From TrEMBL:
The tRNA/rRNA methyltransferase SpoU type domain, residue ranges: 25-167
UniProt organism field: Parabacteroides chartae
SUPFAM superfamilies: alpha/beta knot
Keyword Transferase in annotation: yes
Gene Ontology BP term (one): methylation
PANTHER family named among the record's database cross-references: 23S RRNA (GUANOSINE-2'-O-)-METHYLTRANSFERASE RLMB (PTHR46429:SF1)
Protein name: SpoU rRNA Methylase family protein
């Protein structure tokens, strides 16, 4: 096998990306403090044609060199909006007909491997702070919680890793 050269990968231009069909998914970052995590979420969102990212609270926003370092320009292709308060973002999404899902370990959460999405619906996933997770009051306002099954000794995953796993699963289920 021979690795592909960048010129052989037939990637979209940023302009073509903006015009392309997106999956009906918005990623909400609730007080994510690491700029590298923010950049990574932009890059993953670009890879799987996420509709937009909502940056909330203390979550940094572009342009910023630390975001760019991991986003590698995806912060220029993926649409984003800043909200001072995550609750406002969730309320906006629910009013626009999105099913809003907190990605959190909670009583009654749906395990990601058991989640069945309806490709006629629009979804938003809320990912939380690296230490505290999604705010409880935001969890309370979501339609439901999704949890990634884990089988090791640690109780959580890095937020950018979580985003990658969840976005990939939504992409597989929502891609027409």
């Amino acid at each position: 096998m021979r690795k592909l050269k960048i010129t052989e990968m037939n990637r979209l231009t940023p302009e073509a990306f903006r015009e392309s069909k997106k999956i009906p998914l918005i990623v909400v970052l609730d007080h994510v403090r690491s700029l590298n995590n923010v950049g990574s979420v932009f890059r993953t969102s670009d890879a799987f044609r996420v509709e937009a990212i909502y940056l909330c609270g203390i979550t940094a926003r572009p342009p910023h060199p630390e975001i760019h370092k991991t986003a590698l320009g995806a912060e220029e292709s993926v649409d984003w909006i800043y909200f001072e308060d995550t609750h406002l973002a969730v309320d906006k999404l629910k009013n626009e007909g999105y099913e809003v899902c907190a990605i959190e370990q909670a009583h009654g959460s749906i395990m990601l491997d058991k989640l069945l999405l309806d490709n006629t619906k629009k979804y938003a996933v809320v990912l939380g702070n690296e230490v505290k997770g999604v705010q409880q009051s935001v969890v309370d306002n979501c339609n439901y919680c999704i949890e990634i099954p884990q089988y090791g000794t640690k109780h959580s995953l890095n937020v950018s890793v979580t985003a990658g796993i969840v976005i990939w699963d939504f992409f597989k289920q929502l891609l027409e």
